[in-house]
Amino acid sequence: MIKTVEWTDEGVRMIDQRLLPTEEKYVTLQSCEEVADAIKTMMVRGAPAIGVSAAMGLALGAKQFLGTSVTELEGEFNRLCEMMSQTRPTAVNLFWAIEKMRQEFGRASSQTAQIDEIKQALVDQALQIFRADIEANRALGRFGAELIPDGSTVLTHCNAGALATAGDYGTALGVIRGARDAGKRIAVIADETRPFLQGLRLTAWELAKDDIPVTVITDNMAGHVMKGGKVDAVVVGADRIAANGDAANKIGTYMVAVLAQRHNIPFYVAAPITTLDLSIPSGLEIPIEERAAREITHMGEQQLGPDDVSVHNPAFDVTPNDLITAIITDKGVARAPYLESLRKLATEENPQPESVTGQTA
Fold this sequence. Notes:
By secondary structure, the chain is α/β, with parallel strands linked by helices. It is built from twelve helices and 16 strands.
């Protein structure tokens, strides 16, 4: 099991994903501010992992509060929540986790005036978010495995594996691992995923550790391998899914979806139900993070582009719902019309997949 992020007595421990695959280094972050910086600088990345890390960071910040007044603790906690919300704008799991922690603070403070008990309640909530993410990805993997035929080669974009979640299974790679665990023979083609190379550095590293066959291609080879009949399905993750099924994922995903439709290849989005944002009607309302030009113009310290060149570096794009064959969640598989199927998955306690999709897998 890859331990992406952990709660320890010393602080929040996580693997520094910026150093992979050449160095497997774990660091212990000793303040909420350090956790927020780790999210912002992509030491940890992937929507579910960001949410879990944020919850642990807030619990850590509250635990370290030295005052004796609940009112003062509330003020400090609200400050930390606001700081955390400024780290990454696209991943909705971040804001979901912050809201869960706010709700727990309100619940605990309404029941006790003991600061230590409130602090412990926040730690317990963060750990529950951690455990729920691992369970959700396992369930998602089981649902998704049914959609992947034995002997398939699956193309994926970016990294939506254990490193993008609390650990263990992952979302898009959770589907692949679920198929593998169901006894199916699965191979993977991983887009390198410019400019941060999550496919090359992270997905390939994960799959190699799991002995799942993986071949890395550059992003501009996807159409070529699809045309050559080398791809049976595409499975990607998501950082936010609108109410109508439009899905934001790492930049380049939209291009892969268009190519998949052109070549009649099923295109699946895999994400826990916490990635669904029913408050926005379509992908037009999803905020897209713009990252530093240096991620494109440099490779480490090596400059690749000319001085002062203009750079546009959006971290995500949005795939329209009409290009998505199905959305795989921990509550079941949703198909079009997504306005109906996603809402039903999000609101039903124990939905059955076929009851919400209206179609067979």
